[in-house]
Amino acid sequence: MAAQIAPILDDLEQASALEHLQTVIERLRDSFAVDHLVYHWVNSSGEQYGCGTYDPVWVQRYIDQGYLRIDPVISGCFQRFHPVDWKRLDWSSKAARAFLQDALGHGVGNQGFSIPIRGPNGQFALFTVNHSCDDATWEAFTERHRKDLILVAHYFNQKALEFEPGRTPEPAQALSPRELEAMTLLAVGYNRAQAAQSLDISEHTLRVYIESARFKLGALNTTHAVARALSRGIIVV
Amino acid sequence: MAAQIAPILDDLEQASALEHLQTVIERLRDSFAVDHLVYHWVNSSGEQYGCGTYDPVWVQRYIDQGYLRIDPVISGCFQRFHPVDWKRLDWSSKAARAFLQDALGHGVGNQGFSIPIRGPNGQFALFTVNHSCDDATWEAFTERHRKDLILVAHYFNQKALEFEPGRTPEPAQALSPRELEAMTLLAVGYNRAQAAQSLDISEHTLRVYIESARFKLGALNTTHAVARALSRGIIVV
DNA sequence: TTTCAACTCCCCCGATCCGGTGAGGGGTGC
DNA sequence: GCACCCCTCACCGGATCGGGGGAGTTGAAA
């Protein structure tokens, strides 16, 4: 089980098309000798892209049922930085347990280990290794391959970002410092009058920034603009 | 130069106080045999925290001069996912070249390699290795230690996040499904009328959800509520 | 030098949102 | 049985936002 991932990573780095990723992930699964390996990109618009070894029926069902919104792996990893064992997530809600049952019924193993990965503009992805075994075996596995998995996740996301079309046209429209300040103040609950006072400018000037930011962000209204700024990671609350 | 970083990483994982990070980073620098190693957390509100081996005079100057805003390493890495060699950044602006001259004059080496790292809530940090040598030597070094550096950056950020005060204290009262839907629709730019139509309910009902969500999230207004929902990761846009 | 982006200020008015107060039915849990 | 929460619907007045004008300075890039 001494997975030799270095050559696979090198191959991954050479990959020139999206389809190659599927091949690579299958080789990695064999190398790690686990049931499933999945790379799952959660687009900030709710779209999803992924490749992995789950049953396609399950993947489709996951999408159709909107499991993205209730999957504890997603919500749990989204608030964490470190890789997380599925056992440590919150499965207490009824919806979560039903989801888990459904997953197990579609060939998903009982053990999981997911690594959250983040890229520019609020990109968020998961690299998950999944298996069926007892807790002790699983802990030994994750402990042993933790570093390798982090690296694999990193390399995988790097490739996925390269292949993603329509990346880096948007961020060209960076917000100006004042616009960022305006967005930030709105995001923490200030209304226009308060934000203007806080920046020591007239309310009208503030409005100019907001409108400008709205335009640059392609937003339909202020709330939308703040939401986009947040999910692209250009402001933080 | 065969850096044995594994034991240092293990030590890092055991670190129980912020001060330990400074010790660890110095050991890592010696292990890699480079001039400088820096971990630099960049809060978008302008605050900074970091530890590393740069001359404290330079660190203070960096902050005082507001170099954060013009440093090509920051702006360049912020839009990238993969580690980046300083030579590949855009140094064309006058301000950037002046900054570089100032840096070199304060003991910063001519070669640099920075790894962007991102955490939850838009957290952004840099792990940088810096040295003085010729291009060929540097390329060989980065090529050789790329994987190790990625891992070190990852572990370092993990620790920094653990020590960061005010992380994950939120009890996070859960929103009801309808409230989540309402927040999500608002976050993608719908106004109340559109969102209500989209959910096939009256606008008044929608308002009840929004108000309820606002209350649960402790938000001052709708924009604030959406911002909180986003940054807590309970909705995804 | 000229252009251009960022920053600052002003008025008006219709559209939209907020806050308060109200009511009723359905489900879950003690 | 009785809370308690979730879902649904309604009216109104005042606050806020959004879009439409126009105008001046500064500083950096081309």
UniProtKB/TrEMBL annotation, chains A, B:
<protein>
    <submittedName>
        <fullName>LuxR family transcriptional regulator</fullName>
    </submittedName>
</protein>
<dbReference type="InterPro" id="IPR036388">
    <property type="entry name" value="WH-like_DNA-bd_sf"/>
</dbReference>
<dbReference type="InterPro" id="IPR036693">
    <property type="entry name" value="TF_LuxR_autoind-bd_dom_sf"/>
</dbReference>
<dbReference type="InterPro" id="IPR000792">
    <property type="entry name" value="Tscrpt_reg_LuxR_C"/>
</dbReference>
<feature type="domain" description="HTH luxR-type">
    <location>
        <begin position="168"/>
        <end position="233"/>
    </location>
</feature>
<keyword id="KW-0805">Transcription regulation</keyword>
<dbReference type="GO" id="GO:0003677">
    <property type="term" value="F:DNA binding"/>
</dbReference>
<dbReference type="InterPro" id="IPR016032">
    <property type="entry name" value="Sig_transdc_resp-reg_C-effctor"/>
</dbReference>
<dbReference type="GO" id="GO:0006355">
    <property type="term" value="P:regulation of DNA-templated transcription"/>
</dbReference>
<keyword id="KW-0238">DNA-binding</keyword>
<dbReference type="InterPro" id="IPR005143">
    <property type="entry name" value="TF_LuxR_autoind-bd_dom"/>
</dbReference>
<keyword id="KW-0804">Transcription</keyword>
<dbReference type="Pfam" id="PF03472">
    <property type="entry name" value="Autoind_bind"/>
</dbReference>
<dbReference type="Pfam" id="PF00196">
    <property type="entry name" value="GerE"/>
</dbReference>
